[in-house]
Write a sequence for this structure.
């Protein structure tokens, strides 16, 4: 089943830990698509798997810093 987010991404970890994980490209890529799959967003997870290492990574850093959530490219 899809797990609901508690307003924090990357498995409900504290904000500062999510920022650190978002800055590291490999962990941001892996945790980004795992998080989307856990939310039940299969298409968004596949897009993160394929495209999550470039522009999405940079956008994730800013989104985690300012919005405290990873970027939601698709809600499908």
């Amino acid at each position: 089943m899809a797990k609901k987010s508690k307003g924090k991404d990357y498995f409900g970890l504290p904000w500062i830990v999510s920022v650190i994980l978002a800055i590291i490209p490999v962990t941001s890529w892996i945790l980004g698509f795992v998080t989307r799959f856990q939310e039940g967003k299969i298409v968004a997870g596949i897009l993160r798997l394929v495209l999550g290492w470039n522009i999405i990574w940079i956008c994730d850093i800013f989104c985690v810093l300012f919005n405290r959530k990873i970027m939601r490219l698709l809600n499908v």
Q: What stands out?
A: Helices lie at 15-23, 25-38, 42-51, 55-66. The chain has four helices and no strands. The longest helix spans residues 25-38. The radius of gyration is 11 Å.
